[in-house]
Design goal:
The chain is an alpha/beta fold. Helices cover 40% and strands 15% of the residues. The protein contains 16 helices and 13 strands. The strands form 3 sheets. Strands 3-2-1-4-5-6-10 form a 7-stranded parallel beta sheet, sandwiched between helices. Strands 7, 9, 11 and 13 form a 4-stranded mixed beta sheet that branches. A two-stranded parallel sheet has the order 8-12. The protein is globular.
């Protein structure tokens, strides 16, 4: 039985100074804000030139260090930070949050296998960071991982890690970094905690959510959104921040905690997004077999043509994942009890509907007014790829038709 299933944690970590790798990213940014709200001092590592003096949305009390942990783009020769530099950077901090890494939906560079690509950036490049944190005297390190590792544990018969390189690597990442902790602070090491995250909704200043490119744009030319009949746990980004901060206080070495909020069918999720942006398209459920056939004719064919690979095996993706109900609300509630959510004043981070609405606005900001209300002319208008305020053919046709009258 997992520790979080046995009741509230009896240990509390003293959180005063927190360093966030990926603190200027989506999850790290909201975690930084919540740590500040709880009275902690925060430092972050940002990409060179990522923040400018004109970034008025960035909290000035956060100390920003610039540097790259790794070069993700092929051919990028920008110098990366050394382990020695990281030790110096982490010195004086009691807590580390690691919120960096390639997304599971990324495709690899030509000729690189999915396993080699993700293992390099999620294990090989991360172990030295955690080793540096331990050497610098950090007491607790929190890794943001994937809920796929959770389902690999509870569904061994599905062979998820065997079939999908990304899932295999996420499992290996958790194991490798927990090992770096050397038995935790109680044994002279560092407590390492793994948070397993589901679908996340919300937005942050100056960023277009990944949902636009990797999901909505792919269905732009279709009359409906054909998608398998599964579902997933989902969470507002504020809920991730709550989980990170609560884990900093109460999680214990070796914990692997499923983080989330509500279980929801893909049908409901998709239709909520479409309604929010004013589109008439709706979800149309298909079997895993039909969905896999469509993937083979498009995505898999394109990957083979360009000698690319992926973290999730598209031959099994629809059957193993998208057609399943990746639900764990019961465990989520146990984790919240374990991490003393009531004491911290946390409720799970806000409604999924609000997170989806904020995601929709960030994906199509031109469709909404300054109060977040859908502009009348966009009602009934379906999105197109790379849509802007001026290039949607449906709106333009209606505009030209009105001008002729």
């Amino acid at each position: 039985m997992e520790r979080y299933q046995q009741g509230a944690s009896t240990q509390k970590h003293d959180v005063k100074n927190v360093f966030i790798c990926g603190g200027t990213g989506f999850l790290g940014y909201y975690s930084a804000l919540e740590f500040i709200r709880k009275g902690a001092k925060v430092g972050v590592l940002a990409l060179p030139n990522e923040l400018t003096l004109s970034a008025d949305w960035w909290p000035k009390e956060i100390k920003v260090n610039y540097g790259m942990l790794f070069n993700l783009k092929p051919g990028d020769t920008t110098p990366t930070v050394t382990k020695e530099e990281l030790v110096k950077m982490f010195t004086g901090y009691d807590t580390l949050v690691y919120a960096v890494g390639p997304d599971d939906r990324m495709h690899t560079p030509a000729g690189v296998s999915g396993y080699d690509f993700f293992h390099k950036y999620l294990v090989e490049k991360v172990v030295p960071v955690f080793e540096a944190a331990k050497e610098a005297g950090v007491k607790k390190a929190i890794l943001l991982n994937s809920y796929f590792a959770y389902f690999d544990r509870i569904w061994p018969e599905s062979h998820l890690a065997e079939r999908h390189p990304y899932i295999r690597v996420r499992v290996e990442q958790a194991e490798a970094l927990i090992k770096v902790g050397d038995g935790g602070v109680a044994n002279g090491g560092m407590d390492v905690v793994v948070l397993e995250l589901p679908y996340i909704f919300g937005s942050m200043p100056g960023r277009t959510p990944l949902w636009k490119e990797i999901f909505l744009d792919r269905f732009a030319s279709m009359p409906a959104i054909f998608f398998p009949k599964g579902g997933t746990n989902m969470i507002h980004v504020n809920g991730i921040a709550e989980a990170v901060v609560a884990s900093a206080f109460y999680a214990q070495h070796g914990d692997r905690l499923p983080i989330g909020n509500k279980d929801l069918k893909f049908k409901d999720m998709i239709n909520m997004i479409m309604e929010d942006i004013g589109a008439t398209k709706r979800y149309c459920g298909v079997s895993a077999g039909i969905a896999t056939l469509g993937i083979k004719m498009t995505v898999i064919k394109n990957l083979k043509k360009h000698n690319l690979d992926s973290g999730l095996n598209y031959n099994y993706l629809m059957k193993d994942i998208q057609s399943k109900d990746l639900y764990y609300e019961d465990d989520v509630k146990k984790v919240q009890e374990y991490l003393h959510y009531d004491e911290l004043g946390y409720d799970g981070g806000g409604s999924i509907a609000d997170g989806i609405k904020k995601t929709a606005i960030a994906c199509y900001p031109h469709r909404f007014d300054e109060n977040g209300n859908l502009i009348e002319k966009w009602k009934g208008v379906n999105p197109i790829k790379k849509e802007t305020a001026d290039n949607n053919v449906f709106v333009n046709k209606a505009k030209k038709k009105a001008e002729k009258k």
